[in-house]
Specification:
cytoplasm; 2 helices; mainly beta; 50% strand; globular; Glyco_hydro_32_AS; ten-stranded antiparallel sheet; binds beta-D-fructofuranose; single chain; 3% helix; EC 3.2.1.26
């Protein structure tokens, strides 16, 4: 079915409850459905929004077009959790129901204030000639999850910025409020992050200026910027669309990258002593629009959209698409960003069915379903291939080719199931330290693999669409290895 513009922007009230129920059932019964990751109740999921801690709970929403696997009229779909692992659906919190967000309640963030959660987001408005105007909007959410939008926009775009001005991240620093936004300058169409400041949340917003983040140009548009403080450093996570690959290489259609600075200068809009060359946040195939924030205790967490813009996925045929990653905790060691599963991920383990292995092995135990955690250390001085999600006839698998001598890991999803975004390659190559043991910590959730490498020095996230019976785990040759396997419960 061809999705026309008219269909994508059809008002929600034109659909019946039955239409939605049918779509929810269809998504719910998919063999590729996720069981311990946030996934759309129906339709398309994209960016995580409003990730924060409020009223003793963690909150996150996702961008959602509920009526099909396409980018249409977007809302925020709200989830909450007490442990960052088990998430409960809380319904739609922001819908496109005013003149300012008439064509989508786009991405934004949240900040807890005076017993309420303040949501700041971009209202996407288009006129009848389809000319876009972005508005930065505010709304208060109370403890029950009831939302009241502010009547007027917080601010509009400055004249030097094009129509591409969105995704505010709200921060509080030294008694002031700040927002960083993804922006494109109008004259030279360059990607930037724009910093705004106010003494109050509801008004008084003014531009501080474009943030100095790198000596290089950050493509033609930056989406979803996030500033987060990690182990006494400032980390900027952002999506520089169209970034020159000579500045920093990437294979996905659009990259999600980060820069590390010693600190952030809010007065002069600069990432102090920036690492300059952005680094891929994730080395897999499908991470974009990640959102990060500092919890009240200072810890830094990140959650990502597992999906890419302008990309089709096999579940589109089932009228749903994409999911969010698990939440990861951020640290910096030796100038490098580490991402680790949060402590509470252990609560998913079915400990009574834990299987331990050690020795020179070709085969691992075979899990009962594609819902497990696998942690292993492959001893150094070995090369080979670890096959996951393997079929009985040996023809299909997700192949991890490792070379611990030269220090390389190649992730190959060519043979794991239905093809996805093959124009952008079917392998991803990750550099490892030479002559070191290789630690792999892998989470499988029916159509999602999250691979933490060497305690999270790199993470590779990918979707796959394989026969759910393909559960063999084996090496291509006997390999010195030890580790554990746990089936996981649903969230
Ligand atoms: C990124 C993005 C954001 C925008 C949102 C709309 O994926 O394009 O820039 O706010 O998605 O759904």
């Amino acid at each position: 079915m061809e999705w026309t513009r008219e269909m994508r922007y059809r008002p929600y009230q034109d659909y019946s409850a039955m239409d939605l129920l049918k779509l929810q059932r269809q998504a719910g019964s998919s063999p590729y459905q996720l069981h311990y990751h946030i996934h759309p109740a129906s339709g398309l999921l994209n960016d995580p929004n409003g990730f924060n801690f409020f009223n003793h709970e963690w909150h996150v929403s996702y961008q959602n077009f509920p009526f099909g696997a396409v980018h249409g009229l977007k809302s925020w779909m709200h989830m909450s959790s007490t442990d960052l692992v088990h998430w409960q659906p809380r319904g739609m919190v922001l819908t496109p129901d005013t003149q300012y967000d008439s064509h989508g309640a786009y991405s934004g963030s949240a900040l807890a204030k005076d017993g309420h959660l303040f949501l700041m987001y971009t209202g996407n408005h288009r006129d009848k000639d389809w000319t876009r105007t972005p508005y930065q909007l505010g709304a208060w959410m109370d403890k029950k999850g009831q939302v009241e939008k502010l009547k007027q926009p917080l601010f509009s775009k400055p004249t030097n910025i094009s129509e591409h001005f969105r995704d505010p991240q709200l921060l509080e620093h030294n008694g002031h409020y700040y927002a960083i936004l993804g922006a494109q300058t109008a004259d030279d169409e360059a990607g930037h992050i724009d910093l705004w400041e106010s003494d109050q949340l509801e008004d008084g917003w003014h531009e501080v200026g474009l943030v100095q983040i790198s000596q290089y140009q950050m493509g033609y548009m930056v989406e979803c910027p996030n500033l987060v403080f990690v182990d006494d450093h400032a980390v900027m996570i952002f999506c520089p669309q169209g970034l020159n690959k000579q500045v920093s290489d990437y294979q996905n259609i659009y990259p999600n990258m980060y820069l590390i600075g010693d600190n952030f200068d809010f007065d002069h809009a600069a990432l102090i002593n920036s690492s300059n060359t952005p680094v891929n946040l994730d080395y897999g195939f499908d991470v974009y629009a990640s959102q990060a924030f500092n919890a009240p205790d200072g810890r830094a967490y990140v959650i990502s959209w597992v999906g890419l813009p302008d990309t089709t996925y096999p579940t589109d045929d089932e009228n749903w698409a994409n999911c969010l990653s698990q939440v990861k905790e951020l640290h910096i060691r030796d100038g490098q960003l580490y991402q680790q599963p949060v402590e509470a991920m252990r609560t998913l383990r079915i400990e009574s069915k834990r299987y331990e292995f050690a020795g020179t092995l070709p085969m691992m135990p075979e899990p009962l379903s594609q819902q497990y955690e696998l942690a292993m250390t492959i001893e150094k001085k070995q090369t080979g291939t670890l096959h996951l999600l393997g079929s009985q006839d040996g023809k299909h698998s997700l192949a991890l080719h490792f070379d611990t001598k030269q220090g390389q890991l190649v992730i190959d999803r060519d043979q794991v199931g239905q093809p996805v975004a093959t124009d952008h390659g079917t392998t991803r190559t990750i550099q490892l330290p030479e002559q070191q043991n290789l630690k792999l910590h892998i989470y499988i959730d029916h159509s999602l693999a999250e691979i933490f490498i060497n305690d999270g020095a790199q993470v590779a996230t990918l979707r796959y669409f394989a026969d759910q019976n393909n559960n063999r785990i084996y090496f291509n040759q006997p390999t010195k290895v030890q580790g554990s396997l746990w089936p996981l419960s649903n969230m």
